[in-house]
Amino acid sequence: MATIAPVDRQRMYLDGAWTASRGGTPLDIRNPADQDLVGRTVLASPEDVERAVAAARASFDSGVWRDTPRQDRAEVLERAADILQERSEYLVDLLTRELGCPRWFSAAAHVPNPIRHLRYYAGLVRSTDPDEPRTDGAGNTSLVTQEPVGVVAAITPWNGPLSSPMLKVAPALAAGCSVISKPAPEAPLTLFELAEALAEAGLPPGVFNLVPGDRDAGAHLVAHEGVDKVAFTGSSAAGKRIMAVCAERIARVTLELGGKSAAIVLPDADLAAFVRKILPMALMVNGQACIAQTRILVPATRHDALVDALAAAFREVPVGDPFAAGTVVGPLISERQRDRVEGYLATGRAEGARVVAGGGRPNGLDAGWYVEPTLFDGVHNGMRIAREEIFGPVVTVIPYRDTDEAVAIADDSPYGLSGSVWTADPDAGLAVARRLRTGMVSVNGHPQAYGSPFGGFKESGIGREMGPEGLRAYQETKSIAVSPG
Predict the structure, then answer these.
(1) Do the Cβ atoms of 77 and 173 come closer than 8 Å?
(2) What SS3 class is residue 426?
(3) Where are the alpha helices (DSSP H) in 323-414?
(4) How far apart are CA 50 and CA 304, in angstroms?
(5) Disulfide-capable partner of 374 in 31, 269, 358, 383 (CB 3.0 to 4.6 Å)?
(6) How far is it, in rounded angstroms, from Cα 465 to Cα 154?
């Protein structure tokens, strides 16, 4: 286990300065692998939230960033990306300690992807003209322009401490918005590094404000009249409440919510290749990922062979110290999350499902919040373990008779975020992928092209992040009638 001195983050970033909280709650952040102290922060009080909104509102209304030429905004974002890149090794270690995911995953995704997001949106806003003239052939001309939506509240979860906020902060800043970022209390420390990088890069005071907070702080932001847009990632239950509150004042909202994604194994699929590729897709971030492939749909004729192969692979998954090179699954984020996952393990057994791998706590890891990678068989799609988002390393296998039934089972879910199709025939895989009611589908585990939109159908959310769609989410469209020519 790597050793880093605990970090002191007991000041919030408000209006361009590191500022003491007024009545906030001190909080220790502990490593979920061994309970060592990672750092200290303070959860925002209502007064802290008010100060953050006031700073963001004043900065936006002044035009100090909104009216900055887009090429200059892009330069600030690129400088911030350079600063984060220089600190990337430290960021990898810090993020791994507060989240508990394997260090190699932090180094491969959790840190480089947010830096890439900054660079992407800097390039996109630089190359995208916000003005588009339109004529109707009858001598009339309009200038259709894209303007920043205003003050954005970016409310994000703990499972992507830097990447989830950056999917909101980068396009919002690129568009010219001012931002209040509220990270979750479980893993807020890495985001402080972004605040420092933006300040060093020359972002004007008040344009980015950081207030770690609990649900009350988030609710305060969502209902605040000074917030023009809420961008939220989290549970579907919380997303429903946020959408209802935003509707009362017609505030703009983007919601990236839960998932219960299905991996459809077609009859001609290579089972060995499938097992090898599905494990990281199912167990990423120790199973705590909204896009995790947690329902495996398999032809009844190949069911036993696939279950045997998956069970053998699950039993061999290295579980342990997130800093060990071979670790694939580390601890869950907290004792409460482990209790939640273990509750689902009990529920699955009570529903009649059969544990074929895992199902308990790994030996020798008593200090951390560990759960064994668990595979359930004997599952039908009506069971809670097949319908509800568990957010842990738990996967179910469900048999089907034909492709129509596989698609029906996959779509028989309140969610529609991700999914995959596995086959020796790419054209057949594409045809099935087109039928699925979900926002993202992979054929044979191929990764999405960078810049593709991220988001879901149904209770998996509203709107899209990443790509040009992510930038447009932070813009308002205005039409101005002008003189012809």
Answers:
(1) yes
(2) helix
(3) 335-350, 384-387, 403-411
(4) 58
(5) 358
(6) 12
Is residue 466 within 8 Å of residue 453, measured between CB atoms? yes
The number of beta carbons lying within 10 Å of the beta carbon of residue 297 is 24
**Tokens in use for 402?**
């034909």
Residues paired with residue 144 on neighbouring β-strands, in sequence order: 132, 479
Residue 425 confidence (pLDDT) above 80: yes
Cβ atoms 422, 265 nearer than 8 A: yes
Per DSSP, 106 falls in state I
Maximum distance among all Cα pairs of the chain, rounded to whole angstroms: 78
Q: How much is the pLDDT for 4?
A: 74
Q: What are phi and psi of 213, to 5 degrees?
A: -165, 165
Helix ranges restricted to H, 323-476: 335-350, 384-387, 403-411, 426-435, 467-472
**pTM for the whole thing?**
0.96
Residue type, 272: A
Q: What is the pLDDT of residue 327?
A: 98
| Percentage above 90 pLDDT, the chain | 98
Q: Which domains does the chain have, with CATH numbers?
A: 7-257+460-481 (3.40.605.10), 261-449 (3.40.309.10)
Overall average pLDDT of the 29-52 stretch: 98
Closest CA to 263 of 295, 301, 300, 307: 295
Report the alpha-carbon distance of residue 403 to residue 301 in Å, rounded. Answer: 13
Span 119-137, mean pLDDT?
96
Catalytic position from the list 98, 186, 256, 465:
256
CB 22 within 8 A of CB 48: yes
Q: d(Cα 297, Cα 429) in Å, to the nearest integer? A: 14
Active site residue 186: no
